[in-house]
UniProtKB/TrEMBL annotation:
Region (Disordered): 1-86
Listed name of the protein: DUF4190 domain-containing protein
Residues spanning the membrane: 108-139, 151-177
Keywords: Membrane, Transmembrane, Transmembrane helix
Any Pfam family hit: DUF4190
Biased composition (Pro residues): 40-62
InterPro entries linked: DUF4190
Organism name: Actinotalea soli
Superkingdom of the organism of origin: Bacteria
Transmembrane listed as a keyword: yes
Amino acid sequence: MSTPQGSYGLDPHSRPGGSDPSAGPNPYAPPAEGSGDASSPPPGYGAPPGFGPPPGFGPPPAGYGSGYPGPGHPGQGYGAPGYSGAQHNPQQYLAQGWATPPPPTEGLAVAALVLGIIGLVVIQITGPVAVVLGIIALVRIRRLGTRGQGLAIAGLVTGGVATLLLLLFGVFLVAVLTDGALNGFS
């Protein structure tokens, strides 16, 4: 039985440089021993003629360490200087003046906004409550220095619009009922 021949009459399963002498030498094979100096790179590589390797760095100037603790060095290792890895009290950082936490958000401002949105969408009765809470929240924000002024203003506006819708609905309801009462509901 013969082996299948691929294009150009070559066996598709044979490897280049295999047992087939017509395939030629394997270009990926290491150079044969005795064929030249294996340690020298091919021409065109390496340092230009007349130049040696670059000079090494000398020791650091006085007052500078190597930057790396030596073996058995009882130093701090890889952390930031002065960091022992232990948990610290956040108040310690505040005492050092690193960062101050932001002031809290006024809860009444959030409540005013939520009630104002509910007043616009579902139940208009929450509108006047949102207006009152928004005013109280603005006063407390200015007095205490807390955050949430935008929330309080948004709650005040949405509560005001919900209150206007409630008033319009009340006027409409009164007009319908009085018109129906005058005409005898006919």
